[in-house]
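User: Can you write out an input/output pair for a complex, sequences first and structure second?

Assistant: Here is one pair. Inputs:
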Amino acid sequence: MGYRPLSHAQAIRTGRVRAIAMVINSEEPDRHNPFLQDFLAGACEAASALDWTMTISTAKSEKDMLEVLGRLVEERKADGFILPRTEVNDVRVKYLRELKVPFILYGRTGYGQAQTQDDTSWFDISGETAIRKAVGRLVSFGHTRIGFVGSDPKFNYSHLRRDGYLEGLEAAALPADPKLIREGARTREEGAIEARALLRLKRPPTAIVFATDLAALGCYPVCTELGLHIGRDVSILGYDGIPECQYVSPGLTTFSVDSQRAGERLATMLIQQTRGEAPAGLRELSEAELIARESDGPPRLTSEQLAKKIQLLTDHNRGGNRL
Amino acid sequence: MGYRPLSHAQAIRTGRVRAIAMVINSEEPDRHNPFLQDFLAGACEAASALDWTMTISTAKSEKDMLEVLGRLVEERKADGFILPRTEVNDVRVKYLRELKVPFILYGRTGYGQAQTQDDTSWFDISGETAIRKAVGRLVSFGHTRIGFVGSDPKFNYSHLRRDGYLEGLEAAALPADPKLIREGARTREEGAIEARALLRLKRPPTAIVFATDLAALGCYPVCTELGLHIGRDVSILGYDGIPECQYVSPGLTTFSVDSQRAGERLATMLIQQTRGEAPAGLRELSEAELIARESDGPPRLTSEQLAKKIQLLTDHNRGGNRL
DNA sequence: TGGTTTTCCGAAACCGGTTTCGGCAACAAA
DNA sequence: TTTGTTGCCGAAACCGGTTTCGGAAAACCA
């Protein structure tokens, strides 16, 4: 008859407010995530379908993060949490586990640590599989010297994607040259720095796989600067599927991540968990989808020829160095 | 002593849940807003400072929007609402006004309607002032034929920005040519269509002001296609200050909007309103900041010369028309 | 038909706070 | 000293639901 009980009135008796929360870190250098809206749409829709709501908060630092989580728990503004961007050593996980509050991770955690008594639930997209495929794709094009630019090692995904790169090399029986592996590129600018470092090597890679699209986009001005044609002189692959990939020239080949579905699954699984399901049973690994564009292809030059071309152009431009 | 009352227990007596909500439309074609996180950071921070929280929800259609709002009101999940992207005829405003629920607009509403008994509170950034300045800037560069590409007329800001354009022309005593005014460009692709229409005129504009950066970015491939050098053959200005402006070449001159402060002010003013302050007193108009880059400058060609150049290149390319 | 069990339904207790109310002590004025 | 006023503090009522409990009615069985 159109009657809806006041949610806080039921909460007082049931102990559940029928709300999940997510705290996002607002200080990150690569925080301009165009997919936040998609993610929220997925999560909100899933929550709405079960008559739950979604609370959102932001934190400016690690300390602030725990404070915000603590406040939400103590005031009981939420019954569970979605933790995005899991880190290798994640303080949020430790904190919430201790408080015995339900939570779910977007991404896995504890890279390299024994998974003893691990009872966390998570949803993740297998970046390692995608990067392994990226290497396989480059190998099938004929590349034999392939570089990798990773993201910040504090994030768990950074290690997984590097592992995917190494697995790809191993599957193709190619040696892993430590010189070809760079880490810590989160922004366009950092991506540019690492790309430049790789291309200025004595034996540069003819293809580079980037852990994120943003870092890969940083490679574009570097290639212009070095007089290289992306997709022919150097092949580039990214990961994330940000919209910009299709607007740069040549279009960036990347792996597209379905953020909306991620939000949807995370919200659904978290609510299941608050209803008593075992966290360990609530885990899901999904795949990213290859979006082939024009930034990669068969190598036109060998590593040696590439080095010579770069050397030539660098010497030539020495006068007007624009950093 | 570290004690915090359960928020829903106080809510049952006080009738207030100390939460504000925002419902975002997830179906929009230009929904990939990189500033959502900044906006949320501002709003959440302001809310947190007053010990409030922020609830978020998404809606897929206008009908869905009212349903979601209704649910949040009836279950009393929020004490007030932030309504982003106000439309000329905004159903949300009518609905919430009728329900006597506090709300605040991000943007004004009711363009062209008499503001009788208008008791809404809002925060907005004066797009019309920015666009007027844009026209003034182009005039001072020496442009006399300036085009305008507006956004979807259902949004209030679209009309305001067009008015700003007209005011700018009037201030410079330039005639307003209806042929130079286009509307309805929300995406890059739509921006490209309108830009092409303007540049293919018999007497094309030597400068174009776009109501949004996204539409302005659509002009870039069109200029490449027509063989025009942005910033010299044609001047371009955008509005919004999306990060991509600085990565395209030449960099897009635009007006930067402080989304974080917008979120902060909106949340603060909304909470004041729920505490009893009169909505009509809670209004604020802010300004966008000019970010000058290389996409605009003195006209190198007259409109006639520009038309000739475009004609020439179009004829030349007729064989390999790439749409 | 009588006794027992099941079902149904309304009343009461409860959840954890806020707010009101009343009683008592302290203080000021006469 | 008595009376009136103020201040303080603990008890009780209340908010709007959910859950429990008990009694009456209905159904079942011998």
